[in-house]
Write a structure and sequence with these properties.
Strand content: 5-15%
Structural class: alpha+beta
Order of helices and strands: HEEEE
Number of helices: 1
Number of strands: 4
Largest sheet: 2 strands, antiparallel
Strand order of the largest sheet: 1-4
Shape: elongated
Helix content: 10-25%
């Protein structure tokens, strides 16, 4: 019983020494993330967002050959135009998060 109490006391003291009081010793503090201003309303994009489709044109899109995208913009939607091929963003977006809103079923 004495051996168990001694072992328990030893383990508890080791655990308390293992805990650092200063979180900077165990946490990553750099690089500090930028503060991003939200949009004016919940429907607006944050200040640092790249708006790929504004509901009006395909200014941020191009064909595989780098030419302007020929898909159709009707209302606030984009529709594939037959025979025009694929489109891609003008900007390389390897690391990004995408927020797609306004998707709805055609009538």
């Amino acid at each position: 019983m004495k051996k168990l109490a001694t072992s328990s006391l030893l383990l508890l003291s080791m655990a308390s020494f293992a805990q650092n009081k200063d979180p900077r010793l165990t946490e990553i503090w750099q690089p500090e993330p930028k503060i991003v201003s939200p949009g004016k309303t919940a429907a607006d994009a944050p200040a640092d967002a790249i708006v790929l489709f504004n509901g009006k044109d395909l200014a941020e899109w191009q064909t595989d050959e780098g030419k302007p995208a020929k898909w159709k913009v009707e209302g606030d939607a984009v529709t594939v135009a037959k025979g025009t091929g694929i489109i891609k963003t003008k900007r390389p977006l390897a690391t990004a998060s995408y927020m797609w809103s306004g998707a709805r079923q055609p009538k």
